[in-house]
Specification:
Keywords: ATP-binding, Nucleotide-binding, Transport
GO molecular function: ATP binding; ATP hydrolysis activity; phosphate transmembrane transporter activity
CATH superfamily: P-loop containing nucleotide triphosphate hydrolases
Number of domains: 1
Number of strands: 11
CATH architecture: 3-Layer(aba) Sandwich
Strand order of the largest sheet: 1-11-10-4-9-8-7
Protein name: Phosphate ABC transporter ATP-binding protein, PhoT family
CATH topology: Rossmann fold
Largest sheet: 7 strands, mixed
Bound molecules: adenosine-5'-triphosphate
InterPro entries: AAA+_ATPase (IPR003593), ABC_transporter-like_ATP-bd (IPR003439), ABC_transporter-like_CS (IPR017871), P-loop_NTPase (IPR027417), PstB-like (IPR005670)
Amino acid sequence: MTKISEETQETRTGGLTSKPVVDRKDKQQKRESKNVMQVEDLNLWYGSNQALYEINMDVPEKRVTAIIGPSGCGKSTFIKTLNRMVEMVPIVKTSGSIKYRDQDIFNGNFKQEYLRTKVGMVFQSPNPFPKSVYDNVAYGPRVHGIKKKEVLDEIVEKSLKDAAIWDELKDRLDANAYGLSGGQQQRVCIARALAVEPDVILMDEPTSSLDPISTSKVEELVQELKKKYSIIIVTHNMQQAARISDKTAFFLNGELVEFAETDDLFQNPQDKRTEDYITGRFG
Ligand SMILES: Nc1ncnc2c1ncn2[C@@H]1O[C@H](COP(=O)(O)OP(=O)(O)OP(=O)(O)O)[C@@H](O)[C@H]1O
């Protein structure tokens, strides 16, 4: 078995030029029922700097997909491309295709608001609004035109329950979310994402600012959430990827080097660069 290094470091490697993507499709297709998103030949540039190269990846439904790789390899850029948030940077250009449930998200007829509702996002640092817990969770549904108090009450309760924080906060719904612990804030942000009924949840290092107990609560929550949602999680922590994900994608220098069942990727990497990375030889 290949030994996973304890932690990744904040460095990049250079000069690795061999061909990308070892995708063990046979095994993959046997184990998977359906894909919720399909990425084909995706390239992305920030101005003249190319950040993603020919990415091909099927995102499985109701499973956890981890994205690992050294700092600057394109992990955040990649997941922000999945809900087109990356295009908030005006110099971004893309080529290739991304499908959400067989619809091309770059097609002009595909509404971006709909995409961002269906493909929700949770960020690295908890970012609640300076409002009550209730108003944070009710925010999205209100934007979508839901006004009735009974309906909002129901959504808030369900979302907080699904984010495994209802019991802790049910008597403090009027409290300002800023007064909560970091771990509680992050679960409120997850509840806020759930309140608009997403299908896919993108998580960009959601536990990197949390203590170990809050981290394990979020990790347990991810296991619960995958019963209903498809989750893509960027993590610097390979132990975390090994613990919570079903599939793992290893990115390096903007390339998807290897994408496989998590156990396979960590125990039997097919690409030398993956092996070097997970054993801590670089990055
Ligand atoms: N807004 C931006 N404008 C220009 N270049 C950017 C921008 N955001 C990211 N990049 C570049 O794109 C490349 C990929 O960055 P990205 O943040 O996606 O990597 P990452 O793997 O998520 O890194 P980290 O683990 O440090 O968060 C880097 O070279 C980075 O400098």
